[in-house]
Amino acid sequence: MIESDCCQRCCCPNTREFTVNILDKSNPQEVIRIHREFKCCSCCGCWCGSCPHCMQEVTVESPPGTIIGTVTQVGTSFGMNYLIKDAYDTSTLYIIGPSCLCHGPATYCCENKFTVSNILIRICISRLQAMSTIVENI
């Protein structure tokens, strides 16, 4: 279940605040909560997300109320890269994304691929493709 503000979904869909509640199917109880705060980037005129005030971050809680990690956008001039950090703020995985995500009809002309690597030795451990259900484990 995703909770977000209607106005933010319409006016600023890529930077909106949201909370994702993941429920246990056998017992309708929330087991994981993912939350992102709203970030407005108009203050610095940054369109690519490379300014520290514009970079997105989500927190992951399990059980809800206990932070087990974060996913933080890394400042790059082009591309969407992320660090996955544990509860102690230690970087564990690095995600290298495409230079631009395609949405809508353009999705068929563009590959929205993400590579997940080990932070220490930079070995690819997985590839993800956005806008589809493809997950390739290596």
Automatic annotation (TrEMBL):
GO terms for molecular function: phospholipid scramblase activity. GO terms for cellular component: plasma membrane. Its cofactor is Ca(2+). The keyword Lipid metabolism does not apply. Pfam families: Scramblase. Keywords: Calcium, Lipoprotein, Palmitate. The keyword Lipoprotein applies. May mediate accelerated ATP-independent bidirectional transbilayer migration of phospholipids upon binding calcium ions that results in a loss of phospholipid asymmetry in the plasma membrane. Belongs to the phospholipid scramblase family. This is Phospholipid scramblase. It comes from Rotaria magnacalcarata.
